[in-house]
Write a structure and sequence with these properties.
Length: about 450
């Protein structure tokens, strides 16, 4: 079912950026389960997906069939695998993006950029764009083509010297204008692609404008350095994550003035206090549904709590009275949420698992650290070696003054197992400009030596 859920994510994403219709070729022997999942997209007044069953067909046969049957139904067409995402970094809208290209070319070339998990454990049932948070530092030589439909005939496609859906010069037709997203002519690309992609400034310009994100492999980045880049996760959060998935109402948010009873001052100038009146609700839970990941994943022999792996678990708004995330036993286990932008943090609420007092005590050595850039971390709070949450009330951490952070980490000061029900972060966006040190957010950099 994970594969089918990922397919729905892929469809929702491309619909959100402005793809008008998808012709989905199923090569499975039996497409019944696939068809059942796609029913909302296949029927209605304006179906978005056409499902075609072609068992054991190779890619060339599929692409030739698409050109012969469907090119007259569209202005432009491209061929993508269901783990490939068309990324438009500046506009998020295909129609607006194409305004600069549609009258200048017959074929638009997108370079591919591998995305992966950078050796971190990945929740296979979480949305794909919430788990592939690292990308390669530069685009690959491989490409995907967006062709003007009336510029490519079936005869040209059949006579192509190579995969015309990928190679910009495979069709070899005289007069075809083909350029990349930087408006560079692609003539002769296949013969000397390495020289083309090594031009000064090319890599960063493509990464800043548009490309195809390739999520086909769990971790395609090794041994090259991985760059933390949550753009796709941020897009998913803004446009395609449904309210039903993430908008489970949390506890009442804190007040603007922090009108809670004074508590003991913990390291990092933060007060750990019991639950009190919620106040006027001036702050929202800015961690809800944001990208999160952890140092390891515990795989139980029995069924896990509902929602423990949605969005990585721990900040999805679900309160199963058990755990939202669960690591294995290891030195200094941790869990991180990316707020996707700097925020002024007014309060953090941590809900311990409430199903078993014995295992709830595993969080007694909890500490909270924050960072604005993912590289430099600062201690905000350290739990004084005693259990919390046994009364089903959250641990509340209220800084003396709003704390500037983009990343929030909860971890243990010692070896152990970290599992919590939910982490809520209340605050407001900040206008502070803080550079993101993307290469610092790796397992090796975050785990204790």
């Amino acid at each position: 079912m994970g594969r089918l859920a990922a397919l729905q994510d892929w469809i929702a994403y491309h619909r959100a950026i402005g793809i008008s219709h998808i012709y989905l070729y199923a090569t499975d022997p039996d497409p019944t389960e696939l068809a059942d999942v796609l029913i909302p997209h296949l029927y209605g007044q304006a179906p978005f997906v056409t499902l075609l069953h072609c068992p054991n067909a190779d890619r060339r046969t599929i692409h030739l069939h698409a050109v012969e049957r469907f090119r007259q139904e569209t202005d432009w067409f491209c061929a993508l695998g269901v783990e490939e995402f068309l990324v438009l970094r500046q506009l998020d809208d295909l129609y607006a993006f194409m305004l600069d290209h549609r009258h200048r070319c017959d074929g638009l070339c997108f370079h591919t950029v591998p995305y992966g998990a950078a050796h971190l454990p990945r929740h296979t049932v979480a949305p794909m764009l919430m788990t592939h948070l690292w990308r390669a530092a530069a685009p690959m030589a491989s490409t995907r083509m967006l062709w003007r439909a009336d510029a490519v005939t079936p005869d040209q496609a059949r006579d192509a010297a190579g995969p015309f859906w990928q190679a910009p010069d495979a069709l070899g037709a005289a007069g075809l204008r083909c350029h990349d997203v930087l408006f560079q002519d692609m003539a002769g690309y296949s013969a000397d692609s390495d020289r083309f992609i090594r031009r000064p400034g090319f890599a960063q310009a493509v990464l800043d404008r548009a490309y195809v994100a390739d999520l086909r492999r769990p971790d395609p980045l090794a041994p090259a350095p991985a760059v933390y880049d949550p753009y796709l996760a941020g897009f998913w959060h803004r446009y395609t994550a449904s309210a039903a998935d993430i908008a489970i109402l949390p506890d009442q948010p804190p007040s603007a003035h922090g009108n809670a009873a004074p508590g003991s001052v913990a390291p990092g100038n933060a007060a750990a206090i019991g639950d009190t009146a919620p106040g006027n609700g001036a702050f929202g839970n800015v961690a809800l549904g944001k990208p999160s990941w952890q140092s390891s994943i515990f795989h139980p022999g029995q069924t896990e709590p509902i929602g423990s792996r949605s969005f990585g678990g721990g900040n999805n708004g679900l309160r199963p009275r058990s755990y939202g995330f669960h690591t294995t036993r290891e030195p200094g286990p941790w869990w991180i949420v990316d707020l996707l932008a700097p925020h002024e943090i007014a309060e953090i609420r941590i809900h311990n698992r409430g199903d078993n007092p014995d295992v709830a005590g595993r969080a007694s050595a909890l500490e909270v650290r924050i960072s604005v850039d993912g590289a430099a971390w600062h201690g905000l709070f350290s739990q004084p070696d005693r259990p919390f949450g046994l009364d089903h009330q959250p641990l509340r951490i209220v800084p003396d003054a709003p704390a500037l952070a983009r990343f929030v980490m909860v971890r243990l000061r010692e070896a152990g197992i970290l599992h919590l029900e939910e982490v809520e972060v209340y605050g407001t966006p900040s206008s502070a400009a803080t550079p993101l040190v993307g290469t610092a957010l790796t397992r090796e950099a975050l785990s204790p030596a």
